[in-house]
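We modelled the chain as a single entity of 313 amino acids. Its sequence is:
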Amino acid sequence: MNGIKPHADAAPIVLPVPEPFNYPAALAYLSRSSDEALYAVEGDSLVKLFARGGEEILVQVDYEEDGSGGSTAVRRLVAAFPMGDAPSPAMRRHIEAYMLEWFDLDRDLEPFYVLTESSDLLREAGRTFRGLRMIGIPDLFEAVCWAIIGQQINLAFAYTLKKRFTETFGRSVRWNGRDYWAFPEPAAVASLEPADIMALQMTGRKSEYLIGAARLVADGSLDKQSLLQAGWEGAESKLVAIRGIGLWTAHYVMMRCLRMPEALPAADVGLLNAIKAAGGMERRPTADEARELAKPWKGWEAYATFYLWRTLY
């Protein structure tokens, strides 16, 4: 456990949340798999380990609401440090920025709900999950790895592989009899051989892709800021130029990490199945048909995808 650092601040981080914000729906989404390795849902709390450089800080996130409810209520997320460690100023800024992106707290969702009400495909999902913000993957390396791991396998097995990968190459702290893990750092994965990852039941190709991505992130060739600055088309081009990243993976990363609202993984089987179900269609649409159906969602393709996915899992 880290000691108190010079200029460290042990006070909880408090983030006001916008309206609408549906914390129970967020927790339900985050509870999808018992094999999730990167955070724990414990009652109404989220517990997550943040690790950067030599610093490891365990964070417990809770939702608080003051007032009698309605428009006068004050709602906030509170991130406390249950192990008693105080994060350094840099780590504190990192945790705050991470939480803002994790819960997409700076986006106005009202235009999206105007859209869902006008869409036969989105209306039910919009009403059911109102206030659910897209749960992001703020760390670029984690987002790329998760997308690669999930290629051409079902979600349950993807979680199993991510857990093995994290618990083999990541870092952990122990608190209250439980281990909490941080995703492996790029430098740690960059030094591996494919056989090291294949031992986890990962394919040889995926093992190579993960190591290749790690080396690009570790040496600075692939970084989040440059992708954001490149814009939607530029980010897509940069990502698909990387071995192991096709259009599906690129759009998944653009959606979950870069928070680009136009991202649309149109060939995703889950999305196509959700469109079929929402539209009462006799057959699953093709990717091209999905792109055509998504034209009215312009500027909200990523959120529409997230909500449709949520109708399935």
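As a brief sanity check on the tokenised model: Residues 13-106 form a domain with the TATA-Binding Protein fold (CATH 3.30.310.20). Strands lie at 13-16, 40-42, 45-52, 55-66, 74-80, 171-175, 178-182.
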